[in-house]
Amino acid sequence: MRLSQFPLSTLKETPADAEVISHQLMLRAGMLRKQAAGIYTWLPLGLRVLRKVEHIVREEMDRAGALELLMPAVQPAELWQESGRWEQYGPELLRFHDRHQREFCFGPTHEEVITDIARREIRSYKQLPVNYYQIQTKFRDEIRPRFGVMRAREFLMKDAYSFHTDQASLEDTYRIMYETYSRIFTRTGLEYRAVRADSGAIGGSLSQEFHVLADSGEDAIAFSTGSDFAGNVETVEAPAPGDAQAAPGADMQAVDTPGKHSIEELCDFLAVTADRCLKTLIVSGSEADVVNEDGKHLTGVNWGRDLPEAEVVDLRNVVAGDPSPDGQGELVIARGIEVGHIFQLGRKYSEAMQATVLDEQGKEITMVMGCYGIGVSRIVAAAVEQNHDDSGIIWPDAIAPFQVALLPMNMKKSQRVREAVEALYADMTAAGIDVLLDDRAVRPGVMFSDMELIGIPHRVVVGEKNLDQELLEYKARRGGDSRDVPRSEIISFLQGKLA
Question: Which of 24, 380, 433, 443 has the fewest CB atoms found within 10 Å of its own CB?
Fold first, then answer.
């Protein structure tokens, strides 16, 4: 692609309303333009990245045996009323009426529509299992859209839905989707973790989230230093006390503690540590039943002897350094951006909407369902959050808008440079290299600045000085110094870098 035919709308200043680095850089690089709160136009540069992510997702879903379809974005209210979610979903569901005053919504998700399709199209167990997917625009009327396309109201999503005769079949497809998602996020060049999660508004018996690790992530996740265990901090069980309870070593007695009200004051006064103290709250009883007098505290109190054995419950979130629940290593806490979520839905929707098939005995059974979502547009923002420096974006090769930036120095004044760069451009294109030729009449500094901002992974510079020695200057966007490459070897050199 020639940059003279590909308008590049870069910005020098960071927009004031852009809070996180991905939003800032995507606006500055000319990938996005805001239309309304949480609603964006994807400009040509941004759309190229979005489509490359979409291509990877589609390839891996097809490889997993899923079947692509396309469901309507506008959904009739009757389906949501049938599932019971029309009122449950809340104000995030964009509801409206058509000219005949019939109620509709703009789909935030498609469980109802796909279940309706399945109950009308699937009649026999012989047609199962089946996994349908689509890549389509969703709309969720977020109360506070922010962070650009990270938390937008309108977004591009891949959602898949599987149907089965039994739980064992669902678990097989769930495992396949876990492996598929792992390949997708590996191919996009992201550092990620799969974590145990809450099923939320979608529902279901088991779910896992896929998080891209980034400081700006909205979710705190805990993962083990000694295994692949990971989970959202809200779902990971805090460790219960593991030490055996010692036998009582002292009698319980009331001691005078004048003016000592806080745990800190009490610890200093009694020369004990805070973990040996317990605050109590009396909600019933009388002075005859308990000693809790002002200016006094009880010492030598033991569970089992002086009061009933304690009930141990999980009341806190895990913290860094806690033992991993699987017994391997300690927990580390990191921030994560959710980019994927897989659910074992069970019969939540199929029962409500009577999605049944005939089994081998001709008996009607309710289908078991799975649901598998990926935020396609969110992956783009997450990639920027994880891959950038002070100069701009650093795209992973697989999702970069272009693979190579070809930069001629003073091409308008030098016929020799012009001829060399045109030949190189033709050779790169013929070799299948996705190249952006900066044929603008601008200063070299502008070229370098723009290419660093938009994050092209590889840069080749053509200038008079190097042509004298039949050399070209190469530099990788991700660190490293410039190096000279023989002109005759540049194609094979780049192919090696891109392999």
Answer: 443
- Give CA–CA dist 20/464, Å, rounded: 41
For residue 68, pLDDT over 70 is answered with: yes
Q: Which residues pair with 164 in a beta bridge?
A: 368
What is the pLDDT confidence band of residue 372, given thresholds at 50, 70 and 90? very high
Residue 181 is encoded by which pair of tokens? 């998602």
> 299 with 253: CB under 8 angstroms?
yes
Residue 35 CB partners (closer than 8 Å, separation 6+) = 41
> What are the backbone dihedrals phi and psi of residue 25, each rounded to the nearest 5 degrees, phi first?
-75, -35
User: How big is the CA angle at 72 (ends 67 and 74), to the nearest 5 degrees?
Assistant: 155
CA distance 232 to 198: 8
Q: Report whether 239 contacts 323 (CB < 8 A).
A: yes
How far apart are the C-alpha atoms of 427 and 433, rounded to whole Å? 9
CB atoms within 10 A of CB 76: 17
CA separation for the pair 304, 302 (Å, rounded): 6
Residue 492 pairs in a beta bridge with none
Place of tokens 């000319």: 30
The tens digit of pLDDT for each residue in 130-181 reads: 999 999 999 999 999 999 999 999 999 999 999 999 999 999 999 999 999 9
What is the predicted pLDDT for the residue at 115?
98
> Which one has a higher pLDDT value, 446 or 479?
446
Those residues with Cβ within 8 angstroms of residue 422's Cβ, 6 or more apart along the chain or in another chain: none
Alpha helices in 37-166 (DSSP H): 44-63, 77-83, 85-88, 111-121
Return d(Cα 281, Cα 485) in angstroms, integer: 76
What's the half-sphere exposure (Cβ side, CA atoms, 13 Å) at 39? Answer: 7
pTM for the full model? 0.86
Give the span between the Cα atoms of 361 and 449, in whole angstroms.
69
Q: What angle do CA 491, 493, 498 make, to 5 degrees?
A: 90
Instruction: Write the pLDDT tens digit of every residue in 398-441.
Output: 999 999 999 999 998 999 999 999 999 999 999 999 999 999 99
Output the furthest CA–CA distance in the chain (Å, rounded).
Answer: 104
Length in residues, the chain: 499
Task: Report how far residue 379's alpha carbon sits from residue 149's, in angstroms, rounded to the nearest whole number.
Answer: 9
Q: What's the confidence (pLDDT) of residue 238?
A: 87
Does the structure show a pLDDT above 70 at 284? Answer: no
Cβ within 8 Å of residue 90, ≥6 positions away:
none
